[in-house]
Amino acid sequence: MSAPPRASSGESPVNLDELTKIELLILKRMREFTMGEHRSTFNGTGFDFVGIREWLPGDRTSAIDWPQSTLTNFSPLMVRDFEQPSTATVVALADTSLSTRCGMDGVSIEAAIARAVGTIGMSAVFFQDTFGLITFDAGFANLDAVRPRIGKGHVVHCLEAYQRGEGDQAIRSGGDLSMRIAGFLRRPSLVPVISDFLFDDTAQVVNELAMLNGTHDVFLVLIDSAFAFDLPPLGAGWVEAFDVETGRSRVMSRRSMQTMADRMRGWQDEVRRLAHDAGLDVVRVSTDDQQTAVALTEFIAERRLRKR
User: Fold this and answer.
1) How far apart are alpha carbons 167 and 169 in whole angstroms?
2) pLDDT of 254-307, one tens digit each?
3) Going along 37-85, which residue ranges are E strands?
4) What are the residue ranges of helices labelled H in 186-259?
5) Which of 90, 178, 277, 303 is the most exposed place for a label (fewest CB within 10 A)?
6) pTM to 2 decimals?
């Protein structure tokens, strides 16, 4: 098992070729949902002006407010921010904690999370819904967000934000997790929480998300991470294991190490039970690209259309 530093790799966990494959798969799987008569994917009166902000990667040149930019000497550029009403807003919460960097045979947990972000984002593009991102680290100490917007280019920007482990703006620290997230969401939203859920106080986090579910549509995307602990046969009788989250090390017997994968499956089964008891749906996905794309696309489409 390995945990390479996020900053040491210049490659995104999901590249543009993979995103295009996800897009094509979504178009194929969603064809049945768009055959015949259906409601328009947009409502409202068009684009609403919400204010002036600093330029961000992915912003259109036509959105630059040149008179305002002169006041900052064009550093930074200022853009006019608009919001387009749509039938849904999707804001994904993605885990960037150190445990997600672990993996086996060149496959990491963070790559599975990034793929889930890309799939959910491209599903939003298909329905012309706004898509945003909130990244969180261990213990939800730091929350960074990317405001929801429409388009494939914005999904790419969200994936880049996930790779960096930070968004365009920080969400205030302190207080209940549900209140911190709710303070960022401007309207009722579809909120998938994507993680391996290998952190302490899982029951408390699930309860906080259940409270958020009272106003928003929250569900868990549970990354099956047992593969990262499915170790090959060990020759040593005792092994020193290092916890990437806490920095602590522990000497474990060979027998204990060989049961780690089963223990992780048991832990995630318990997370699923806690979520169901709290009224939250769970989608459990693996590192298989196609399985993840199909499972998430069909789940989101059915859930979204059921609530229209």
Assistant:
1) 6
2) 777 778 888 889 999 999 999 999 999 999 998 777 778 888 888 887 776 665
3) 48-54, 78-83
4) 202-212, 254-258
5) 277
6) 0.76
